[in-house]
Amino acid sequence: MLIPRRARWLPPALSALALLLGTGATGSVETELEEGIGRWMAEVFIAQRGRLSQPPIDDWVVGLGRELVAHSPRRDLDYHFVVLDSPEANGFALPGGWVFVTAGLLESMRNEDELAAVMAHELAHLANRDFQRVAVRTAVFLGIAELLRREERTDLVPLVRAVQLVNSLHHSREREAQADRAGAGIAWAAGYDPIAMTSFLGDEPKWSYLQTVFATHPHPNRRSQWLRERVGQLRQDDPSGAARMAESLIDRGRCSAARRLLAEPLPGLEQERLRLLERAAQCAVPSGESARGGLLPSASTDAVLAAGEALARARRRNEAARTKAWQRLRRLWRDHHINRALTVAQAYDPEMRDPAYLGLLAQAAHLMHRALRGGNLVARTLTMRSTTARGVTELAEELCRTRAAADDGPVLVRAAAELADAARRLERQASEVGDLSRLAREYHESGRLVAPLLIELALAGEGDPLGRLVFSRFMVIETQVRTLDRRIGDLDHKAETIAAGAWEESVRLRRLQLTVAGIAAGPSARRAMAALTSRRVCPDSDELLASWEELGGLGEAVLAAIRRGLEPDDARFSSDLRATQILMRIAFLRAKEQVAWGEKGNASSEGAGTVALRGAVGHPQQPRRTAGRP
Question: CA–CA separation, 335 vs 475, rounded Å?
Answer without folding.
Answer: 27
